[in-house]
Amino acid sequence: MNRRILPTPALLCALALGALAPAAHAAGSWERAHPRRDQVIDRTQHLNARIRHERHEGELTAAQARNLHAQVRNTRLEQRSMARSNGGYLTKAQQAGLNQQESAISRQVGR
Q1: What's the CA angle centered on 104, arms 98 and 109, to 5 degrees?
Q2: pLDDT in tens, 9-63
Q3: Domain boundaries, the chain
Q4: Cβ distance 72 to 63 under 8 Å?
Q5: Residues 75, 77, 78, 79, CA torsion sign
Q6: What is the pLDDT at residue 24?
Q7: What is the C-alpha to C-alpha distance for residues 26 and 30, in angstroms, rounded to an integer?
Q8: Would you state the torsion angle of the CA atoms of residues 56, 47, 64, 68, taken in this order, to the nearest 10 degrees?
Q9: Which of 29, 44, 75, 94 has its CA 20 to 30 A from that of 81?
């Protein structure tokens, strides 16, 4: 008699979590190795979330939201270009410049 043994939900959960653990560890070590870049990326993600929220709440028009998302995208592309030219890192001056750009965008979102 050939009986198939089906994995239990608990086993499937454990396997899934085990598969995600190396990725989480890698992200943590990347963030420690690139703290300036990680800070800029986190801020970019937060800005995009704020823009989506303000659009959903009706405080921004679709055109305003598109414009702000484009500004955030341009900042992100600039950050990637800067990091590429520095071996994956941002200098303090580059981080300060990007933060200035993101602050200007943030003021537009919060009006």
Answers
A1: 125
A2: 555 555 555 554 454 445 566 566 689 999 999 999 999 999 999 999 999 999 9
A3: 35-109
A4: no
A5: positive
A6: 47
A7: 6
A8: -150
A9: 29
CB 39 within 8 A of CB 63: no
Q: Please give the structure tokens belonging to residue 95.
A: 């981080």
Q: 64-106, pLDDT tens digit by residue?
A: 999 999 999 999 999 999 999 988 899 999 999 999 999 999 9
* DSSP classification of residue 86: T
- Measured between alpha carbons, how far is residue 10 from residues 17, 18, 26, 97 in Å? 11, 12, 25, 48
Contact between 65 and 57 (Cβ < 8 Å): no
Three-state DSSP class for 25?
helix
Which positions ≥6 away from 71 have C-beta within 8 Å?
A: 101, 105, 108
Distance CA 83, CA 97 (A): 13
